[in-house]
């Protein structure tokens, strides 16, 4: 990637037309062009190599640590000195796979719930005119600015109180954590979806209604198939945000067999950073690869969703 | 929310051309029709049956647990749900209701509850209501009654839950656990000594197990089974696992005077107005309840010598961290976008994909990964770039701050690369061309044309990103845990703690001394900052006008 090709890209040449000077040989002209190419374009390749190193070396390093037969942080600096799957095999001796299942359950349920409730709410706001609609939209906009995570003390106390009545909704229950995540779903996603729903022409609904369709039929049979892209984006964003959440998962889930990956892997690394390094590296590779693949393949949609309001990172 | 029926059932912007209709029977709504296409009504009926069943079960348990607030809320929610889904009037609410419940309970309520807790002294030593504090105090002061009868007792178990089965003088057997008071059971087999040997629904723990398992023994000797719901009636305890005796509290609760009197010493404890029982000598009972303390928590955060200094440092660092994170990531992302948004480059797609890799890697894992890489002894950063020197990246106050910013830059510049690349490509080309023709240099073009145009679309995102980083608990907690701790400070705060991680440490939700009041007060401070920042964002985007 870094070696400059000898042929000058046509666009570069045409972008900067030069009057042929007298007494200039072909070689000199070619050298001049190459100089200009270097000045304008060529230097970007070596720079890109540096940036690629900056962006990727921690990940490559993690991959190397995962594939090393050594399990500790000490000596992990020499990359790919040996290749083995010891660390991956060792994962089954830990709670890792329980945490993976927990994470999938919690994140999957909150993604599905967020899509269902957000989609329904967006349909109501986009298709019906009812008293209090404007006020509801405005208050939703204001509420969503105050993140749930800052109110985690109140969430904790609420779950303690709820748990005395319904233990399934108390502290140390995955269902309770899902409910907490769903509490933030409407505020975060309704606007994203509302905007998209508004782009579906209302004439479609009207035609269906004249044909005798009920509001539910319009919603399920007409609108939903048309808004699948935004449903996918919201589902993915909800999944990723639940996947990355630490603070709520940590205070809600107290026993080890209920932990999600974020809580469990933090516990690994915070207690015995050096000795469990291989485990952590292997675990993070397994957990990150699907997310990475999903993210890169859906890049286009996610970026659209990001710039429409929600922020990660 | 009241709903105008006429509007509700009509779709938006429906011009409603009243077409001449043939006179006919008024059509029944699909929502109530048995023969509606697709059996939608049947599905709804089943779902509502499920909802009602679960709701009623929850209401019953709330009644049994005597949680009147939760009971009331559940009754209202269930009635409203039934009304909404079987009424023809509330069509929009049919779509909004489930989301609104979750929003109301788990977000709006928690926000207001934070506001309430901020004005109380809720925390260790002040948990629950006064009645709970009285019960706890009485339990803590229970003693064996001198001439109490002893009952034949068997230790019973159901899974992990331990209980006692005792036989009273009339031969009636009762079973109880830590949480459920003694209750009579039938069908019990007792041996000649009166000790229960078979209890239906429970597994009787053999005596031999008690002797061999020290852990179980400790659990049994510390177990107290309340005689009844009333703490005055005392409890059954055992010393050896075969006989149970009644323990009664030495404290006596006088509900009218709101005092606890120790019958052994004659000391009277009365409420001190701050949620504790105090004797005339100043002795305080450990169990207390929470009361309103006005602005004391806020005052403590700003003036208490133990908190004010560290918290001020934390607050300043929070602003610096959030501001610098946005600036550096925005700057680097924009720089890369400007350089690599160049059609003459080959392999742009591949280059850009590798550039955004850090963003696709889950943030908490990146922070943990860097925690290992920055390790002073074995970390790869010291090994590769600093000749194996032992630089304490995470243990020196200044270096830790730089490390946090560095890692956050690595995590978040791809976001800005993506956003600014999109924004650059959307910029009109003619303005830049006009500037070029007027003789503007590259820098001049960038500063006067590109950047201002770019800011229009990215400034709201920058403000949102500031608010996000203001509460970026994950990276701080995963990378440094807030450390290194302030030298000599009595509070568990450190140089890289931001407000949200400080709140986490102070609140004690993860163990240690809990101070929910002070933590909530700080949450309110954070809310105010976020509110101001968001108000700025509103003015930028004027989103409100688009509704």
Automatic annotation (TrEMBL), chain A:
GO CC terms in record: plasma membrane
GO molecular function: ABC-type maltose transporter activity
Localization: Cell membrane
Database matches in InterPro entries: BP-dep_ABC_trans_perm (IPR050901), MetI-like (IPR000515), MetI-like_sf (IPR035906)
Family, similarity comment: Belongs to the binding-protein-dependent transport system permease family. MalFG subfamily.
Record-linked SUPFAM superfamilies: MetI-like
UniProt biased composition (Low complexity): 1-20
Species the sequence originates in: Serinibacter arcticus
Membrane spanning stretches: 43-63, 96-125, 137-163, 175-197, 218-243, 277-298
GO biological process entries: maltodextrin transmembrane transport
Region Disordered: start-end pairs: 1-30
Protein topology in the membrane: Multi-pass membrane protein
PROSITE patterns documented for this protein: ABC_TM1
Lineage top rank: taxon: Bacteria
Pfam family, one: BPD_transp_1
Ranges for domain ABC transmembrane type-1: 100-298
Protein name in the entry: Maltose/maltodextrin ABC transporter, permease protein MalG
Keywords: Cell membrane, Membrane, Sugar transport, Transmembrane, Transmembrane helix, Transport
Principal subcellular localisation of the protein: membrane
From TrEMBL, chain B:
GO molecular function term, any single one: ABC-type maltose transporter activity
Keyword Cell membrane: yes
Compositionally biased tracts (Basic and acidic residues): 7-31
CDD domains: TM_PBP2 (cd06261)
Span of domain ABC transmembrane type-1: 315-537
InterPro entries the record matches: MalF_N, MetI-like, MetI-like_sf, TM_PBP2_N
Pfam family, one: TM_PBP2_N
Stretches the record annotates as Disordered: 1-33
Residue spans crossing the bilayer: 41-62, 68-86, 95-119, 314-338, 350-370, 448-468, 516-538
Domain of life: Bacteria
Free-text function comment from the UniProt entry: Part of the ABC transporter complex MalEFGK involved in maltose/maltodextrin import. Probably responsible for the translocation of the substrate across the membrane.
UniProt protein name: Maltose/maltodextrin transport system permease protein
Species whose genome carries this gene: Serinibacter arcticus
